[in-house]
Amino acid sequence: MGRFAKVAGFIERHEAFFISGHETPDADALGSEIALYRALRHLGKRVKIVNADPAAQKYAYLDPEGVIDTLDPDPAVTYSLPEDVASWGHFILDTNDIGNIGHVATLILPYVGEYYIIDHHELGDDLFTDNHIEENASSTSEILYDLLTELNIPINLEVAVALYTGIMYDTGSFIYPKTSARTFGIAHDLVEIGVNPNEMYQHIYESNSIPALKLQSKVLASLELYYDQHVAVQTMLRETIAACGARYEEADSFINVPLKSKDIRVSIFFKENEQGILRCSLRSKGNINVAAIAQTFGGGGHRTAAGFKSAFRLETIKTKVLGMLQSYFESGSE
């Protein structure tokens, strides 16, 4: 049996598939979705990509044909399902938490024949048995590259661009802890296929809108420092998004800005979307496991990059999260 024998079996059992990623899909979720979509289409399958939230405009180059569908933000609005939906399979990518796929979990998932997770995040529960989860992989896109290789599915330039995008984003341009020699080897192969690294960087990091730039200035102005200036907290309210004329998904990289300071060990970003849903993103350096914090509140992620949707009001969840960091900082808060 090959490394991806169970995935191959899942593909063989169905002639049609949904593909979905996590809420507010990032470059790895989108890149792996497009790559798997093209792979399944190559095998003659019917495929629909459906996400709960729209992608940032800067990722439009990944989907020039508009194959990624987005659910209505109102979960009460039903999604038109195929008549034979009970025979469809459903791939969940870049998250191992079904609660993290938004109302895809209620409008589509209950009606398909079965679902299968491909992911690389740390686990809160044991999901290894019936899914493909590699915690040491740099990204879901890295796993998808190996999947396509094992299944002898050709990787053309479009797929290579999608995979490179996901890998570059989730490794922080090849610097995060899970970046390995294998990661660089895959990137090498993708560049040989025709990917232009400079163009990929420009798409992801140099394509934000002017409203997004204004929004970033407002968010950075909200910066608060705790624990002897080792923990940074930023806040973004929906009123701020509206005032700047920006979109929620354009704030996806703001969490990383405080980490540019050598003194900041944890960056926390509380962000409210246009519907008033509050989420918390966490990033860390060194031995601080922010995934454990996120899992406490029903979320997940990596040791150094995690997040969750908050059931609490802003000030309450801020107090709780900061309290959970106290054991790492003996000097106490500011």
Keywords summarizing the entry:
334 residues; 12 strands; inorganic pyrophosphatase (n-terminal core); 2 domains; 11 helices; Diaminopimelate Epimerase, Chain A, domain 1; alpha/beta; 6-stranded parallel sheet
Q: What is the second-level CATH architecture of the largest domain?
A: Alpha-Beta Complex
Number of E strands:
12
pLDDT averaged residue by residue: 93
So what's the CATH class of the largest domain?
Alpha Beta
Binned, the helix content reads 25-40%
Name the shape in a single word.
Answer: globular
- Along the chain, the helix and strand elements come as HEHEEEHEEHHHHHEEHEEHEEH
Q: Nearest-angstrom radius of gyration?
A: 20 Å
Query: Termini, distance in Å?
Result: 56 Å
CATH topology of the largest domain, by name, is: inorganic pyrophosphatase (n-terminal core)
Number of domains: 2
Structural class: alpha/beta
CATH superfamily of the largest domain: inorganic pyrophosphatase (n-terminal core)
**Largest sheet at a glance?**
6 strands, parallel
- The residue ranges in which pLDDT falls below 50 over 5 or more consecutive positions are none
* Largest beta sheet: strand ordering: 3-2-1-4-5-6
User: What count of helical segments does DSSP give?
Assistant: 11
Approximately what portion of the residues adopt beta-strand conformation?
15-25%
Organism: Sediminispirochaeta smaragdinae (strain DSM 11293 / JCM 15392 / SEBR 4228) (Spirochaeta smaragdinae)
Pfam family, one: DHH
GO molecular function, one term: nucleic acid binding
Domain DHHA1: 246-310
